[in-house]
């Protein structure tokens, strides 16, 4: 009897688990599917699950919509913002992890609180500053803004990773006559490389998907993929096939990176509070 | 192990030198963040007190609190405030409530669990503009959408969701993005729960509900507070999802504070009025932050 109920709950759990998973994933699945339809197939009613797949939508996205231009912008902005933030954050996190003072805790919490400033509250000054410094609609401008918004998270995440590096190893290096610089670059960085890599990954994902500043600070020249996709929202842009193909291309890299790095992401996104 | 991880403080003469180096390494990040958080804030405050319109240069001079007064007596502003609260609270309830239940579900052993989990968390990695258009066009479009086709298939008349229930639909789209986030975080937290503790509770005759209330929920409290904090930061500034689906409409039916400020500043070029809105947004966020950062700070081992 006990075994029987156990078995039926197991079946129920399996059905529920898979049912919810498929339901939540369905829009993404449908997007991928629609990308392989022609525009006519994409708007057939009722929608077709089985059809002759075509690459025509992808071909048009590559040819006409200058997809590569937007991808290039996204890559430049994300990588630029990430590298910049790491260069600022690694020394800061090193200092807080290995040379803590009374103010370290306060500094960390203050950094966290700057993250609470809603971007929309400073939209006007940032927009006007970008305009007067000719950084509006440039990759540099958007990269700087992305770097600054993510800096607190990156410092936090590096801090939690650095704290796991045993201090005696660093001290041993110093005994052997290593300078602070050598200690940081030759002892700490190799040891903390996995942590730095997952921090960089989180930053890349956040920059890649960033939409608020991308939509407000760029128009055509520096528009990243988020803004490019938004251009499909115009009523005359009801091209489901092309929208789906372009969206699939824009989402795929981050989806794969996200799947691979789930565990590290949890840690980064929760400031190390959940591991 | 714990002893190894503990850091011995620098001692003696090298202490002062260490302090200086520490400060030197820390200062670039701190200074740049200080500038980043104070300069725009000061500018927003200043703009909110003057008459400043980007396309009407005749309008200038000190305005006092008239920008605020104009905003606070504008019904659109009050609606946008209400919509902001509805969106934040609604999405939080759906994502944290649903996320807790799903975290427990995906903690159970079942066939293909790993793949199911990956499918569940996927929407979180989809960029906001894609997920908004995906729902608007492919799922909910009154003629071509999959959901409309399903409704027709069972004999119902399809609903134009974004026109009839704009705010609710935006809430559902945003929840679709953030529920997976909550699952991702809470599932990790559930998995760190000691299985022996659960076993012991079961031995003592605790039913599933008692186990949930007295063991799982207390264990999750910290993760939940972190999820609430992070989601609140993002949800206060929902923008892309509204911009590409309803553009705040019809009327102001789906305009939140973020979208209102955007439209005042970059569509009506009213810098003064938009800045007053910005200041109010910052005040609201800070009130929320005061509670949230404090509850998180209590849970952090720094």
Automatic annotation (TrEMBL), chain A:
First-listed, main subcellular location of the protein, grouped into a coarse class: membrane
InterPro entries found in the cross-reference section: BP-dep_ABC_trans_perm, MetI-like, MetI-like_sf
Keyword Transport: yes
Subcellular location: Cell membrane
A Pfam family recorded for this sequence: BPD_transp_1
Keywords on record: Cell membrane, Membrane, Transmembrane, Transmembrane helix, Transport
Regions that span the bilayer: 12-33, 75-96, 108-130, 142-162, 183-206, 239-260
PANTHER family, per database record: INNER MEMBRANE ABC TRANSPORTER PERMEASE PROTEIN YCJP, MALTOSE TRANSPORT SYSTEM PERMEASE-RELATED
Family according to the record: Belongs to the binding-protein-dependent transport system permease family.
Name of the featured protein: Mannitol ABC transporter permease
Organism of derivation: Gluconobacter cerinus
Automatic annotation (TrEMBL), chain B:
Subcellular localization, as worded in the UniProt entry: Cell membrane
Classification via InterPro entries: MetI-like (IPR000515), MetI-like_sf (IPR035906)
GO biological process: transmembrane transport
Domain ABC transmembrane type-1: start-end pairs: 81-292
Membrane topology: Multi-pass membrane protein
Annotated keywords: Cell membrane, Membrane, Transmembrane, Transmembrane helix, Transport
TM region(s), chain numbering: 21-47, 77-106, 118-135, 165-190, 223-245, 265-293
Transmembrane helix recorded as keyword: yes
Lineage, top ranks: Bacteria, Pseudomonadati, Pseudomonadota, Alphaproteobacteria, Acetobacterales
Gene3D superfamilies in UniProt: MetI-like
Main location: membrane
Gene Ontology, cellular component aspect: plasma membrane
Protein name from the UniProt record: ABC transporter permease
Stored PROSITE patterns: ABC_TM1
Organism encoding this protein: Gluconobacter cerinus
Pfam families: BPD_transp_1
PANTHER family assigned: BLR7065 PROTEIN, INTEGRAL MEMBRANE SUGAR TRANSPORT PROTEIN
Family the UniProt entry places it in: Belongs to the binding-protein-dependent transport system permease family.
């Amino acid at each position: 009897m006990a075994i029987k109920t156990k078995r039926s709950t197991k079946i129920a759990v399996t059905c529920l688990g898979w049912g919810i998973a498929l339901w939540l994933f369905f829009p993404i699945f449908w997007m991928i599917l629609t990308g392989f339809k022609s525009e006519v197939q994409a708007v057939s009613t009722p929608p077709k699950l089985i059809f002759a797949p075509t690459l025509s939508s992808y071909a048009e996205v590559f040819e006409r919509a200058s997809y590569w231009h937007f991808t290039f912008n996204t890559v430049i902005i994300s990588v630029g913002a990430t590298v910049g933030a790491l260069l600022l954050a690694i020394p800061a996190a090193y200092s807080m992890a290995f040379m803590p003072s009374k103010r370290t805790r306060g500094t960390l919490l203050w950094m966290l609180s700057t993250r609470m400033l809603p971007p929309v509250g400073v939209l006007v000054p940032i927009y006007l500053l970008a305009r007067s410094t000719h950084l509006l609609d440039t990759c540099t401008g958007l990269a700087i803004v992305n770097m600054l918004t993510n800096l607190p998270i990156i410092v936090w995440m590096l801090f939690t990773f650095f704290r796991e590096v045993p201090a005696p190893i660093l001290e041993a290096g110093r005994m052997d006559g290593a300078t602070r610089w050598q200690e940081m670059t030759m002892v700490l960085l190799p040891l903390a490389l996995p942590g730095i890599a997952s921090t960089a990954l989180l930053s890349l994902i956040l920059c890649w998907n960033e939409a608020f500043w991308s939509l407000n600070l760029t128009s055509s020249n520096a528009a990243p993929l988020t803004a490019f996709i938004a251009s499909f929202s115009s009523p005359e842009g009801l091209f489901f096939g092309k929208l789906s193909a372009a969206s699939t291309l824009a989402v795929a890299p981050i989806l794969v990176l996200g799947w691979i790095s789930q565990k590290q992401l949890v840690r980064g996104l929760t400031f190390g509070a959940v591991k | 192990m714990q002893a190894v991880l503990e850091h011995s403080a620098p001692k003696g003469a090298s202490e002062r030198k260490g302090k200086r180096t520490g400060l030197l390494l820390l200062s670039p990040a701190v200074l740049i963040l200080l500038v980043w958080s104070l300069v725009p804030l000061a500018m927003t405050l200043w703009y909110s007190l003057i008459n400043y319109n980007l396309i009407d240069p005749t309008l200038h001079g000190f305005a006092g609190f008239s920008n605020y007064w104009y905003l606070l007596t504008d019904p659109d502003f009050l609606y946008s405030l209400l919509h902001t609260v509805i969106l934040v609270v609604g999405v939080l309830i759906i994502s944290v409530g649903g996320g807790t239940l799903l975290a427990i579900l995906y903690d159970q052993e079942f066939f293909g669990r790993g793949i199911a989990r990956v499918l569940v968390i996927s929407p979180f990695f989809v960029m906001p503009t894609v997920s908004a258009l995906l729902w608007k066009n492919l799922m909910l479009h009154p003629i071509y959408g999959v959901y409309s086709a399903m409704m027709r298939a069972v004999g119902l008349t399809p609903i134009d969701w974004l026109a009839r229930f704009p705010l609710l639909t935006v809430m559902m789209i945003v929840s679709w993005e953030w529920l997976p986030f909550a699952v991702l975080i809470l599932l990790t937290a559930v998995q760190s729960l000691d299985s022996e503790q659960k076993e012991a509770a079961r031995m003592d005759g605790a039913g599933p509900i008692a186990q949930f209330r007295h063991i799982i929920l207390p264990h999750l409290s910290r993760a939940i507070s972190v999820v609430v904090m992070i989601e609140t930061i993002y949800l206060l500034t929902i923008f892309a999802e509204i911009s590409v689906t309803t553009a705040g409409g019809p009327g102001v039916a789906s305009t939140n504070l973020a979208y209102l400020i955007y439209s005042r500043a970059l569509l009506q070029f009213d810098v003064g009025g938009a800045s007053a809105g910005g200041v109010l947004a910052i005040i609201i966020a800070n009130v929320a932050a005061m509670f949230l950062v404090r509850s998180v700070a209590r849970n952090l081992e720094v």
